Amino acid sequence: MQHAHDPQRTAALEERILDHDDSELLAERFKLLADPVRIRMVSALVEAGELCVCDLAELVGASESATSHQLRQMRLAGLVRARKQGRSVYYRVADSHIRLLLDVAVEHYLHGDPR
Amino acid sequence: MQHAHDPQRTAALEERILDHDDSELLAERFKLLADPVRIRMVSALVEAGELCVCDLAELVGASESATSHQLRQMRLAGLVRARKQGRSVYYRVADSHIRLLLDVAVEHYLHGDPR
DNA sequence: TCTACCTATGAACAGCTTGTCATATGTTCA
DNA sequence: TGAACATATGACAAGCTGTTCATAGGTAGA
């Protein structure tokens, strides 16, 4: 690196692109959906409304421990909420944005719509 | 794990949630946006339309080598396309879905819209 | 109370990511 | 042709992620 092909243009651009903090925040959100197991968990919770760890683990095909770890992560990020009842804990999706992002991705990447 | 609280319900659910292949595919896509540097790159490319590696590196504040590595990754995933001109290579966004996903995320996570 | 059950959590480990450094390839210009 | 330049790439290191295993806490039922 030494120059900028068009210094004025890049300087102007710099003001319009996402800054470091914003891109960091967005990346954190996308990371939550950047794992097939978590995607299946969110998908299941969206469909079911509410599920206990036990059923969720079976649905997504993961161990209960792994499921619990992932749920903890999503819970700390505010993506899901927990409700305790008896010896079970029921989880539900708390973040409607994630639901929307998943919908958009499903719509565009799975249901045809090439390009 | 031993039972399912409601076997019928979980069996019915299993058919409606994303299967392993689909969730794998979606996760791959979300991974591309799960990094602040790549997000800034996409943001810059969306704003500029086209940028050479050199300018892009300066804009996002990464080394040219790191930038090139990321671009390669995004290129192989079909997210960006390259155009060679002289000794420069100009990149542009090739996947309009990613652009949409980024827009949705920006809209909901950055521009207010709580909940 | 004792036992089985459901979930949570810490530790450890493997695999993946991303950056840097060195180097290679191809290009422009003198 | 030689030198500076723009980009690409392989190898390696450091950090991060996700899983398993062991274990602990709290709850329901006998």
Strand content of chain A: 5-15%
CATH superfamily of chain A: Winged helix-like DNA-binding domain superfamily/Winged helix DNA-binding domain
Q: Determine and state the CATH class of chain A.
A: Mainly Alpha
Number of strands of chain A: 3
Spans of chain A of 5+ residues with little confidence (pLDDT < 50)? Answer: none
Q: How many alpha or pi helices of chain A?
A: 6
Fraction of helical residues of chain A: 55-70%
What structural class do the secondary elements of chain A suggest? alpha+beta
Oligomerization state = homodimer
Walk me through this protein's architecture.
Chain A is α+β, with helices and mostly antiparallel strands and 115 residues long. Chain A has one domain: Orthogonal Bundle (Arc Repressor Mutant, subunit A). In chain A, 63% of the residues lie in helices and 12% in strands. Chain A has a three-stranded antiparallel sheet. In chain A, a hairpin with a 2-residue loop joins strand 2 and strand 3 (88-93). The two termini of chain A are 34 Å apart. Chain A binds a DNA duplex (30 and 30 nucleotides) through residues 1-2, 35, 37, 52-54, 62-73, 84, 86-89.
Outline the secondary-structure elements.
The structure is a homodimer of 115-residue chains.
Chain A lengths: L6 H10 L3 H13 L3 H13 L2 E2 H8 L3 H13 L3 E6 L2 E6 L2 H15 L5
The structure holds a DNA duplex (30 and 30 nucleotides).
Keyword list:
115 residues, alpha+beta, elongated
Please provide a brief summary of the model.
The structure is a homodimer of 115-residue chains. Chain A has 115 residues and is α+β, with helices and mostly antiparallel strands.
